[in-house]
Amino acid sequence: MRQTDAQLWLRQAADDYRFARAALTGHFHAQCCFIAQQVAEKATKAVHYHLGARTVIGHSIHALLRRLNARAQVTPELLDLGGQLDQYYVSTRYPDALPGIAPTDAFSPAQARAALRSSGKVLRWAQQQLRRHV
Question: Which of 29, 43, 49, 31 has its CA nearest to residue 93?
Fold first, then answer.
């Protein structure tokens, strides 16, 4: 059976979540934060595709969630998590994103754990949405 675009995006989000956990275990905190952002972005895009979108453009999880709003039971907590994760899209990867500090030195284990928890919540929400809107 051929998987839908939504299923493919959700499958990749789940695999990225496993990778983010490995990054946390390996003390790659900046990378864990970035991959956590990617998990939530891909999971949110999966919901867009599941609800009929043809193309989903953008990297802001908060904006992607806002565009879904009532169609997919987006809660204020979910919007807040998206906004928190958005901060990791650039700052975790580029040495010129944060003045005077490389990303590898800028992110703590606590930030990585929080990012991973947040992305897990978004991922579980997306999984529920795909089951709910069959």
Answer: 31
